[in-house]
Design brief:
Distance between the termini: 52 Å
Order of helices and strands: HHHHHHHEEEEEEEHEEHHHH
Low-confidence stretches: none
Radius of gyration: 21 Å
CATH architecture of the largest domain: Up-down Bundle
CATH topology of the largest domain: Butyryl-CoA Dehydrogenase, subunit A, domain 3
Strand order of the largest sheet: 2-3-7-6
Shape: globular
Mean pLDDT: 96
Number of domains: 3
Length: 394
């Protein structure tokens, strides 16, 4: 394999870098530098042990970098563009999907929910600390028996005088066990409503979920609400129904469209390096036709994924991005990234299952990314309905 060009230059065979502005590239490079210093040397160990060392310290560093709620305005948020937010997601997920999940749950789910639907008191009380990373948030929507059908959630809130009483449970909640505040969605007599729940409220607990084989460098929890009493102003004042939580999920899904390409790029870079260095039958692996076909196919999928993410990012910044388009991006890019990681694993052979390389870690993580924020089946049906006009969900 020719070594005239560096791996990074070969990864930009299509000239994608030319599509980004100087400011966008600067954001990307600053996040990449932070990942190389603070995450990459340690993340394989975090994954193996199933815990992040000093997660609050890491969150504060992300806050200092300005990436928590970075696409929101005011209240200490950076007010950056959708494309800049996407590039940050891509760099973080090139390190690990779990770290990108920490950032996107904080910014695109918990912070966005408060920023978009909360009262002024909610915003002033939580967003500055969350943007700084000194307070951590989580987002309680999924339940043990209700994932793709959140409208059937059983968690409920009832009025008791001027207060609300919340009862129920949520499952697979990123950041839950370390969160200072939870955005919790519940059934009420007025429809589904959102609540801002301080995690030190009596009756609230968040046991950590163990024995995961995916997203191990991420805190995943159950939320238990045992008659949690909240003041009347803890509820989001206006939004009712699934409009509230689904608007937040669209923000997170958009970030995943970019993030998945970060995991894909990491795997592809690993494949190119390995194919250059590994010798079999007297020649580098990259000198064999079948290996070159794998690399070419992976690069095509990666290039198309980044182009799709960028297109959706430009639409987001033009305020023309639709939920159907977000589903298209999430469906295509996560599936493409997982295929790239699986193919890279075949190039690495037995080494592909070792945590000395990032490939099996990305593979396992992407199995979760494929499912959360909407499964393959649900996004397929969203796209199918957009194409045919027929709803096939039931």
């Amino acid at each position: 394999m020719s070594t005239q060009l560096s791996i990074s230059d070969r990864l930009d065979l299509a000239g994608l870098e030319d599509l980004f502005s100087e400011d966008e590239r600067a954001i990307q490079q600053s996040v990449r530098a932070m990942c190389e210093r603070r995450i990459d040397p340690y993340v394989a160990d975090w994954f193996e042990r199933g815990e992040i060392d000093d997660i609050r310290g890491l969150t504060k560093e992300l806050g200092q970098l300005g990436v928590l709620g970075m696409h929101l305005t005011g209240y200490g948020c950076a007010g950056m563009s959708g494309v800049e937010y996407g590039l940050a997601c891509m760099e973080l997920e090139a390190s690990d999907s779990g770290v990108r999940s920490l950032m996107s749950v904080q910014g695109s789910l918990a912070m966005f929910a408060i920023w978009r639907w909360g009262s002024e008191e909610h915003k002033q009380g939580w967003l500055p600390d969350m943007a700084a990373g000194t307070a951590i948030g989580c987002f309680g929507l999924t339940e043990p028996d209700h994932g793709s059908d959140p409208g059937s959630m059983r968690t409920h809130a009832r009025r008791d005088g001027d207060d609300w009483i919340l009862t129920g449970s949520k499952m697979w909640i990123t950041n839950g066990s370390v969160a200072d505040v939870a955005v919790v969605w519940a059934q009420t007599d007025e429809g589904i409503r959102g609540f801002v729940v301080p995690t030190d409220a009596p009756g609230f607990s968040a046991p950590m979920i163990k024995h995961k084989m995916s997203l191990r460098a991420s805190v995943t929890s159950e939320l238990v609400l045992d008659d949690v009493r909240l003041p009347g102003d803890a509820v989001f004042p206006e939004v009712r129904g699934l409009k509230g939580p689904l608007s937040c999920l669209n923000e997170a899904r958009y970030g995943i469209t970019w993030g998945a390409m970060g995991a894909a790029r990491s795997a592809l870079e690993t494949a190119l390096t390995y194919a250059e260095q590994r010798t079999q039958f007297g020649r580098p692996l990259g000198g064999f036709q079948l290996t070159q076909q794998k690399l070419a196919e992976m690069y095509l999928a990666y290039t198309k994924g980044v182009l799709l993410a960028l297109h959706l990012g430009r639409r987001k910044d033009a305020h023309t991005l639709t939920p159907n388009q977000v589903s298209l991006g999430k469906l295509n890019n996560v599936r493409a990234a997982l295929d790239i990681c699986r193919t890279t694993r075949t190039i690495l052979g037995a080494n592909g299952i070792s945590l000395e390389f990032p490939v099996i870690r990305h593979m396992n993580n992407l199995e979760s990314v494929l499912t959360y924020e909407g499964t393959v089946e649900m996004h397929t049906l969203v796209v199918g309905q957009a194409l045919t006009g027929e709803a096939a969900f039931r």
